[in-house]
Design goal:
Blueprint lengths: L2 E14 L2 E7 L1 H6 L5 E5 L10 E4 L2 E2 L3 E7 L3 H7 L6 E8 L12 E7 L3 H14 L7 E6 L8 H6 L3 E6 L6 E2 L2 H10 L8 E6 L2 H10 L8 E3 L15 E4 L2 E4 L6 E3 L7
Parallel strand pairs: 8-9, 8-12, 9-10, 10-11, 12-13
Antiparallel strand pairs: 1-2, 1-7, 2-6, 3-4, 3-7, 5-6, 13-16, 14-15
Bound molecules: flavin-adenine dinucleotide (FAD) and FE2/S2 (inorganic) cluster (FES).
The site of FE2/S2 (inorganic) cluster has 12 residues, from loops.
Length: about 260
């Protein structure tokens, strides 16, 4: 069950230009959230902006949760001006997160497009705790340029095999995250049906990935982004079409089975 709380900001740091990591004291979220769920945040103290903004839970600790976000508009700009000690009005954890199946044959491949990396680091931490033995997981980080690559060292510390794709080729392969993941699967190093995709990124990436990866493990999942209003499943403002009918991204998702998502 989500809770509405005024959480104390523990820290806020600009880790790359325009990209902030904020830690808030939120024991309930820390205790109950799973990777892929999100917080609905009231960014300002006035009614402008009126609507809360959905931001993924990036990581969590014993009594705190972290978010990682880019400043793209009014809400995130106000958020970026908050300081340690300020209070943050949050509702969460919301939505349904990634499911980690105990399938020893699976090769887990995390595919992050841009800020899609935010929920995937928390998932990586969960995987590194739950996968025993030598089996690691693969991470594909897609970004515009070298300057936009996020969380690479954090994933390496977790023991992940990390590949980077940049749109301008300034780091890693000059490709989109989707193209690089397809190339790795096509190389034959892994059996396609054993590759379990966990993806998050902007809608165009989600569309491409759903087309490319339908023959991967049926346990493959993707986190989708839609503009949201209530965030609680009531207004139907975030509905998408799926193989089993219309679904609300905020309540039925944001994480869906890859095979369930039907993009026309
Ligand atoms: C479930 C979920 C999890 C998210 N997690 C994160 C996260 O971890 N980190 C992060 O940086 N962002 C995340 N987002 C996107 C984030 O919600 C938007 O960037 C934010 O709401 C923008 O608010 P704003 O007031 O700053 O910008 P606005 O002024 O509202 O919009 C600025 C620009 O961003 C676009 N935009 C706004 N909201 C969305 C959206 N939901 N999807 C796609 N484009 C949008 C607008 O079309 C516009 O071009 C997530 C979105 C969803 C739905
Ligand atoms: S935002 Fe209201 S139903 Fe999803």
């Amino acid at each position: 069950m989500p809770k509405h709380v005024l959480a104390k900001i523990i820290s806020q740091k600009e880790i790359k230009k325009g990209c902030f990591r904020m830690r808030v004291k939120a024991p309930y979220v820390a205790r109950t959230a799973s990777a892929g769920q999100f917080l609905h945040i009231r960014c300002g103290d006035s009614t402008n902006p009126l609507l809360r903004r959905p931001i993924s839970i990036h990581r969590k600790g014993a009594d705190y949760a972290e978010i990682l976000y880019n400043v793209v508009g009014k809400g995130t700009d106000i958020l970026s001006r908050k300081k340690a000690g300020d209070k943050l009005d949050i509702i969460g954890p919301l939505g349904s997160g990634f499911k980690v199946y105990k399938n020893d044959r699976s090769i887990r491949m995390l595919v992050a497009g841009g800020m899609g990396v935010a929920p995937l680091l928390g998932l990586g931490e969960e995987l590194s705790r739950s996968i025993k033995g030598k089996k690691r997981f693969i991470v594909i980080l897609g970004a515009k340029t070298q300057k936009h690559v996020l969380c690479e060292s954090e994933f390496r510390k977790l023991g992940a095999e990390v590949y980077v794709a940049t749109e301008d080729g300034s780091k890693g392969k000059k490709a989109l995250a989707t193209e690089l993941s397809r190339d790795i699967i096509k190389s034959g190093k892994y059996k396609r049906q054993e590759v379990c995709i966990y993806a998050a990124g902007p809608m165009p990436m989600a569309r491409a990935l759903c087309r490319m990866m339908q023959r991967c493990s049926p346990e493959s999942q993707i986190s989708l982004e839609e503009r949201m209003a209530c965030g609680l499943g009531a207004c139907l403002g975030c509905v998408i079409d799926t193989q089993s009918g219309y679904k609300r991204v905020c309540k039925d998702g944001p994480v869906f089975a890859l095979r369930e998502v039907a993009f026309k």
